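Propose amino acids for all 140 sites.
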């Protein structure tokens, strides 16, 4: 059987594993919470002016972040959440990683019944991206 030759993109990729992992080792500030007083309701938080930076091009990314969750014992404190989200403003990180990192950090802070984080990113080069991550995550 003949060996397949690699394409130029495979031998000299424009995006590397370092680009893919960019920003994920960042020390994010803790998200403060407060004690929930009720059961069985949903909270929707909207950040319509979210910004970050592409780790490859250093160009800004603009989008909207929506965080929906049903609190268990703790609720997100909004000023603290805003300070947390500001860290992304100058951080080189892929959009998919942003959404998944926010989900991980919100779940860590609140242990919600369920949570969904959605990033709706504005077009760059004519292509927009919508990324949704949910907790609990599907079983492997």
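Proposal:
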């Amino acid at each position: 059987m003949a060996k397949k030759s690699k394409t130029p993109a495979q031998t000299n990729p424009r995006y590397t594993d370092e680009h893919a992992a960019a920003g994920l080792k960042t020390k994010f500030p803790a998200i403060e919470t407060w004690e929930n007083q009720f059961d069985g309701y949903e909270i929707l938080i909207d950040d319509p002016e979210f910004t970050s930076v592409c780790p490859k091009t250093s160009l800004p990314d603009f989008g909207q972040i929506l965080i929906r969750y049903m609190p268990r014992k703790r609720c997100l404190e909004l000023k603290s959440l805003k300070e947390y989200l500001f860290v992304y403003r100058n951080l080189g990180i892929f959009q998919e990683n942003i959404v998944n990192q926010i989900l991980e950090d919100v779940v860590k802070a609140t242990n919600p019944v369920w949570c969904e984080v959605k990033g709706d990113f504005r077009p760059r080069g004519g292509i927009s991206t919508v990324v949704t991550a949910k907790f609990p995550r599907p079983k492997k």
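Residues 95-110 form the longest helix (16 residues). The beta strands are 33-35, 43-53, 60-70, 74-76, 114-124, 127-135.
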